[in-house]
Amino acid sequence: MSAIFVGNDVVDLGEPRTEGRAADDRFVDRVFDPEERVAIRGASDGDLELWARWAAKETGFKVISKLLGAPPLFVHRAFKVEWTDTVDPEESDASAVVRRGRVTYEGLEARVVVRLCPGAVHAVGFGAPGGPPERVSLHRHLAPLDDPDRPWAGPLEALEMQLSERERDAVYSLHSAAVRLGARADLARALAVGEERLEIVCDPGPTGQRPPRVFLDGERAAADVSLSHDGRWIAWVLWTDHQTENR
Ligand SMILES: CC(C)(COP(=O)(O)OP(=O)(O)OC[C@H]1O[C@@H](n2cnc3c(N)ncnc32)[C@H](O)[C@@H]1OP(=O)(O)O)[C@@H](O)C(=O)NCCC(=O)NCCS
Q: What is the pLDDT of residues 176-218, one digit of tens each?
């Protein structure tokens, strides 16, 4: 069983739907609470503020789904984002942190870190049953689906053949298969075990209500994984009980 639960969410800033959304009042009013709306409308880059908060909420939902054991209904507004730290992107390097903070939902908390990467916003988060620890060492990865050096190259059928039957059960697209292969290869490295011993299996249920879990030799491992994909990007974050890399 995992002692730490992780979440992540990528937003492809190359998708036309992401542009100018801070000026889309209906969307902003539906997704964000009054304080968040003020923050978005008063921000120097409203779209960045909006997508950073969106990615944080989705990340928080993924962490809190696992803390609860069963996903709650996802109403974005009910997942409250509070920043503890904001950094002007012009003062930061490519793929550097632009926001840090927390997402809370009915007394539960996930810590989140948001990066602005070239072409994407990527949020990573973690939580634990007794509340999130101050610091946790995580491994995060953001990659283009068409990366030439990818271990996930090929058509969907070829990728599916590399997944177990239990893993394939939740796969419905090229992105969905690719992100599992990328994350599983990384898990094998982090746990120092053969990849054939690992599986990333989603809980039963409808799409969006199926947190992924890590299995080693058919048993739940002391590790956690979160998957995300949007547009041209796939992304994942890992926690293992002998993680060495820092986020
Ligand atoms: C879960 C959710 C936030 C995912 O966000 P998304 O931007 O659509 O998709 P992402 O690519 O970022 O994440 C998808 C991955 O999250 C993981 N995931 C799915 N449900 C999850 C959950 N409840 N908790 C943690 N992780 C979950 C899966 O690994 C999934 O990968 P897959 O689609 O390849 O199986 C979204 O599907 C959602 O809103 N679900 C809630 C549905 C709901 O509550 N509906 C009620 C209507 S009010």
A: 999 999 999 999 999 999 999 999 999 999 988 999 999 999 9
Pocket lining: 125 vs ligand 1, CB cutoff 6 Å: no
The two structure tokens encoding residue 180: 């599992």
Q: pTM, whole model, 2 decimals?
A: 0.95
Range of the domain at 198: 142-240
For 59-92, the pLDDT digits (tens) are 999 999 999 998 999 999 999 999 998 887 766 5
For residues 155 and 124, state if they share a domain: no
CB-ligand 1 contact for 208 (6 Å cutoff)? yes
CATH number, domain at 156?
Answer: 3.90.470
Instruction: Report how many domains make up the chain.
Output: 2
240 in ligand 1 pocket by Cβ < 6 Å? Answer: no
Ranges of beta strands (E only) in the chain are 5-12, 80-86, 96-105, 108-117, 120-127, 139-144, 198-202, 212-216, 219-220, 223-230, 233-240
CA of 109 from ligand 1 middle (Å) equals: 18
- Same-domain pairing of 157 and 116: no
Q: Whose CA is nearest to atom 42 of ligand 1?
A: 208
